[in-house]
Sequence to fold (266 residues):
Amino acid sequence: MVVLLLIGNTTVAQKSRKGRNSRKAETSGERVKIYMDNGSIYNGILMSQTEDSLTMTAFEDNIVTLAKDEADRILDKDEAIVFPDGKYHDTHGFFWGIALSLNPVTLIPNEDGDVLEERALSHLETYYGWRLNKKLSLSSGFAIEFNQARLAGFNIDTRFSTFYGQAHYNLTDSKFRLYSYARAGYGFADQDIFLQNGHSDGAQFQLGLGFKIPSRKRSKFHFALGWHLQQTSGTDFFFDNFGNEVRTEYNLIISRPVLKAVFEFN
Fold:
């Protein structure tokens, strides 16, 4: 069965979009996904194409010919890794995301039912970037970060507003995609009267591995496990077991694992 969807571009509005999707996919036989202006979505194998149309197998091996000027978005191997079920990973272009992080060790109980690690970590970040190719992407972002450290039996609370740059490298092209990332930035101390302390700005670094999950939409989800380092110094006040106020000066590097959930959009 052959389905022909060759739609003319005789109106001024349609002519103004001519050439929007004129770039050819590299070769026939590759998997492509096409989003049409009318909301239709086609997923299949490219058979052939011209400057104005392409022909693909879709709908259980039916042959479909589509006008490129009526396509909102064409995903071929230059734009995405497309899988048979229609899910895909983007490999080119702009993206932005939101990430939430915590210290995973605080979720693990010990034999007494208490947590193994009481030092909290809570980060909220947003970032914007560009995929240079299917392996490497670069981004910059802003984060609000709360880190808790322990010194001489006392907890020290720190809070930073951080600006950072990040590199993201995909290690595989599989459906559940393994990647590595590294970021470096500078945290500006956020002094708060409720924290009852003072600490300095400082450089930071984070390194980790993650898995990206494909989807049929422009939004993607992935998670990562990494290690976070933050340099700071400051002064804090505590009360000892006898009720005496103790003043402590410190210079330390906060070193902590991070478990990160990421929501990414194109």
